[in-house]
Amino acid sequence: MSRLEYYQRPLVAFDVEDADHRAYFHEYLIRKTWGRCPVRFICPDEHGPEGLVGIVTRQLVDYYTRKEFGDTPKTEGLAVPIHKPRRPKSVEVDLKIIAKQALQTEKDTDEHYENQAA
């Protein structure tokens, strides 16, 4: 066994139930580096291009959601929001600009005809 293999950090899969693993991820979020983490987390290929941070974040969201709300979704008594479809803000701004230009064009046309009549 080489020295590098002997001294390297052990490879482990992130376990959301393990408080130490959650603490290591919290430290990563604060320091923005895995340098002081005593283990290396394995990133399974089945999760695609999401990356380790994305996988761990999703697992933590699931874990804390289950911890707070339980496994079954509670839908009774929840109001279902009903929204009328809105136009995107850029469309509203464009319509205002077009309306303003149309009014300006109408004024200019009226002035042009008044100047010709005089």
Order of helices and strands: HEHEHH
How does the major sheet shape up? 2 strands, parallel
The shape is elongated
Strand proportion: 5-15%
Short summary:
The chain is mainly alpha-helical and 118 residues long. The chain is 56% helix and 5% strand.
Folded structure, characterized:
This protein has 118 residues and is mostly helical. The protein has two domains: 3-69, no CATH class; 83-118. Helices cover 56% and strands 5% of the residues. The chain contains four helices and two strands; from the N terminus they run αβαβαα. It has helices spanning 3-7, 19-31, 51-69, 89-117, and strands at 11-13, 40-42. Strands 1-2 form a two-stranded parallel sheet. β1 (11-13), α2 (19-31) and β2 (40-42) form a beta-alpha-beta unit. The N and C termini lie far apart (103 Å).
Tags for this model:
118 residues, mainly alpha, 2 domains, two-stranded parallel sheet, 56% helix
